[in-house]
Design goal:
- By secondary structure, this protein is of the alpha/beta class.
- It has eleven helices and 18 strands.
- It has helices at about 10-25, 35-40, 40-45, 60-70, 85-90, 100-110, 135-145, 170-180, 195-200, 330-335, 340-345; strands at about 5-10, 30, 55, 75, 95-100, 115-120, 150-155, 190, 205, 235-245, 250, 255-260, 265-270, 285-290, 290-295, 305, 320-325, 355.
- The strands form three sheets. Strands 1, 10, 13, 14, 15, 16, 17 and 18 form an eight-stranded mixed beta sheet that branches. The chain has an eight-stranded parallel beta sheet with strand order 8-7-6-5-4-3-2-9. A two-stranded antiparallel sheet has the order 11-12.
- The longest helix is centred in the first third of the chain and has 14 residues, at about 10-25.
- The radius of gyration is 23 Å and the shape is elongated.
- The two termini are about 25 Å apart.
Amino acid sequence: MRPARALINTDALRHNFSRVRSFAPLASVMAVVKANGYGHGLVWTAKNLQDANAFGVASVEDGILLRDAGIQQPICLLEGFFHPDELPSLVQHQLSSVVHHESQLWDLEHAGKIDPIDVWVKVDTGMHRLGFSAETLPAVIKRLKVCMAAGRIRVMSHFPTADNRFDSATPLQARLFDELTQNLNVDRSLANSAGIVNWPSSHFEWVRPGIMLYGATPMIGISAETLDLKPVMTLSSEFIAINQRRKGDAIGYGGDWVCPEDMPVGVVAIGYGDGYPRHAPPGTPVLVNGVRLPLIGRVSMDMIMVDLREFPDAKVGDAVVLWGAGLPVEEIAALTGTISYELLCCVTERVPRIESTVQE
Ligand SMILES: Cc1ncc(COP(=O)(O)O)c(C=O)c1O
């Protein structure tokens, strides 16, 4: 069996959930498990978050997978339904839906006689992605109140820049959301992970943590460790070859990394076919027995190469950590020009997720 694997730490997930509760003790928690639980496994994540008050997903299909796995909490489609054909499935599986657009409102108003679907009306308070404008919100709520297909009504909005603790727009956005919704007498939700840890005025009745549950920091310039968040996924593989190379040997595709001296080079069975970023530059660290060693050469589909000059005792079969316990995913994300979210959710299906409680 290929040694590439994602160790998924149940204790860390539960710990991070308890951090959500301590940051936002009064709020109900809608745990965001879209994109296969940010790569950790949709059903696994939900099953290990028994205390979550609800789950947020991005498709009816994910909602059904959770129901089929026995998840009983409310499940919300964060982008709503995509087509009116999906409404019977929402009813059958008791999925609630964001309503962010006139077309969805129209579909609900013309749904005929169906059991009512709980809705989260999305209002745009500054993200300018999804949501009704602030001006149209009262009319939307009024229409939903008389819409036979709409059940319980709640309101949500989303932050674009809450990860920046110096941002002046975020508190203004929270205030605007409060002003728009305070007389509606409905539950409200605004905070993502960054809102939860840094903007208490955004907590309202429901918070919607995603990335912090998985142990990566939601904040620019504040580490996960500082926030006492623990990595849930440790992506690891093993050396499958250790080769002694000569000064001047070119390593891997393109041959653009050239050995500056005679040196040992390790080959690790992981690559972009597993979701390890192809553009990880030479120098990107990997962890071997707690020692950081630099990647060299280009990332291949199934393999990467590692400079072993600092750890010449490495052996075939030694474990190599690509990110996770001891090597924050944020660090690899920064070096590869992306964010932890993308790295985590792009770990491909061929990497087995293996449940573990070991935290280094
Ligand atoms: C509507 C909505 N709420 C909450 C979240 C969770 O955000 P985060 O992972 O930053 O906590 C997301 C994630 O993208 C989202 O789309």
